[in-house]
Amino acid sequence: MSEIQAEKMPLILIVDDDRTMRSLLNLAMEEEGYRVVEAENGEQCLSEYTHFQPDLILLDAVMPDIDGFTCCQKIRRLPEGDRLPILMITVLDDRESVEQAFNAGATDYITKPIHWSVLSQRVRRLLDGDRVWTELTTVEEQLRQQRTWEKLISNILEQLVSGDRKSDSIKQVLSSIREWLQATRILMYQSDSQQYLESVAAGATSIKNFSATDFNLIAEYGEQYQQGKPIVIEDLSQADLPSAVIKQLKQSNTQTLSIVPIKKGHRLLGLLGIHFSGVFPQNQELLLNRLSDIGNILAIAIP
Asked: How does strand 256-264 pair with strand 267-276?
């Protein structure tokens, strides 16, 4: 198995104060092909969970200091801990202890002495369930993003068609785009008129005093502009920009900058500068394609 394939295998966090039991559990999980990390008590479990973000926890219920029940409750309050599969391992199989395990947030439980084939089946079932949940969540998020994208395009077209294509109407369009992108600000520069329009998020500063030279920037990206391709500058300190521009961007809390060409045929009508106070949103390729579509639509608004 290659290192890349190994890294894709689920990671199991084993928590037990008994070294022999940890070793047996480790061996059983590694034989199933899983990656394993260990913790010998509740405090270490919380630390290892935060550091490794495992796919499943095998958690002993009876431990000194922080027992498994309390540890499980604490994990559920940590980031991403609410959905993590936690399999409680206990010598207690009375109804009260089982209820306590589930009330603490355990996904399932298994009793000692452990039946190893049952343990393997439980772990596999929990991991399969978590994988399906993750896939469904991903699909739901993709559908949500698609709906918001379609709504944005509909709103832009409606505003451009119903408006007079003057500053106020275009500013509304820019605000809709900025809110959809959750950007800090958007600057639209029109080449012929050398006019700027800006939409700024609440609490952000205006930087409308950019010059056309500053914003048109960089011969380096000229070919991409002509091809209608947006660019993303993720590290301003490494960007081929005038130092005064970089300084102003950083002072205005811009960490990531995307520039979208606005074209009509072979003619470059202007540029759309999109400023983010954090990293560029995920799924960069899809977003860049959509930004290209936005640039094409905005070409309608420029005579």
From this structure: antiparallel
DSSP state of 28: H
Quickly state the pLDDT bin for 55 (edges 50, 70, 90). very high
148-177 pLDDT, tens per residue? 999 999 988 888 777 655 667 788 889 999
Rounded Cα distance between 260 and 270, Å, is 9
Phi and psi torsions of 163, nearest 5°: -85, 180
Closest CA to 207 of 240, 237, 184, 175: 184
**pLDDT of 209 above 70:** no
- Residue 49: CB atoms within 10 A of its CB come to 24
What pLDDT, in 10s, does the model give residues 60-79? 998 988 999 999 999 999 99
The whole-angstrom separation of Cα 69 and Cα 75 is 10
Q: Helices 116-162 & 284-298, crossing angle to 10 degrees?
A: 10
3-132: CATH, from 3.90.850.10, 3.40.50.2300, 3.10.50.30, 2.60.40.10: 3.40.50.2300
Question: Could you give the C-alpha distances from 197 to 133, 169, 173, 188, 227, in angstroms and in order?
Answer: 44, 11, 11, 5, 23
pLDDT confidence of residue 7: 61
Beta strands in 201-296 (DSSP E): 231-233, 256-264, 267-276
pTM: 0.64
163-301: which CATH number, 3.30.450.40, 3.40.50.1820, 3.20.20.60, 3.60.15.10? 3.30.450.40
